[in-house]
């Protein structure tokens, strides 16, 4: 199982063993990661699963789709490495992925 490290805005790190084939957001919810609200349940209809992908992982995670770009307009403190974690599917190649949660979700 791939491991994902979630780092809170305050710097607290939590590493989880993630399930392949489901999203980073779903893995966060299953592991009670604070800062991932996931109000829409993964439908890319809100921005409450916003994360910052560590620079070393941006290329492996891939680019944002147009719908994700549109939803990020509603997120807090959007950056170049911002992603909606519901749009990142976990796979073996993402073993070691590091994401940070923003100060708050809208």
Please provide a written account of the structure.
With 106 residues, this protein is α+β, with helices and mostly antiparallel strands. It has one domain (3-100): Beta-grasp domain (Ubiquitin-like (UB roll)), CATH 3.10.20.30. Helix content is 17%, strand content 20%. It has helices at 24-30, 58-61, 66-72, and strands at residues 3-7, 13-17, 50-53, 82-84, 97-100. A five-stranded mixed β-sheet has the order 2-1-5-3-4. A hairpin with a 5-residue loop joins β1 and β2. The longest helix has 7 residues, at 24-30. It is globular, with a radius of gyration of 12 Å.
Task: Provide a short characterization of the protein structure.
This protein has 106 residues and is an alpha+beta fold. The protein has helices at 24-30, 58-61, 66-72, and strands at 3-7, 13-17, 50-53, 82-84, 97-100.
For the largest beta-sheet, the strand count, sense and barrel status come to: 5 strands, mixed
Q: Write down the CATH class.
A: Alpha Beta
Which strand order do you get reading across the main beta sheet?
Answer: 2-1-5-3-4
Provide the CATH architecture.
Roll
Mean pLDDT: 97
State the fourth-level CATH superfamily: Beta-grasp domain
Structural class: alpha+beta
């Amino acid at each position: 199982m791939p491991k994902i490290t979630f780092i809170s805005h305050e710097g607290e790190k939590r590493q989880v063993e993630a399930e392949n084939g489901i999203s980073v957001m779903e893995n966060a919810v299953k592991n009670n990661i604070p800062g991932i609200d996931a109000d829409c349940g993964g439908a890319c209809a809100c921005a409450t699963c916003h994360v910052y992908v560590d620079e070393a992982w941006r290329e492996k995670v891939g680019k944002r789709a147009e719908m994700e770009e549109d939803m990020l307009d509603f997120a807090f403190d959007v950056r170049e490495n911002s992603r909606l974690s519901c749009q990142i599917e976990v796979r073996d190649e993402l073993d070691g992925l590091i994401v940070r949660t923003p100060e708050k979700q809208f």
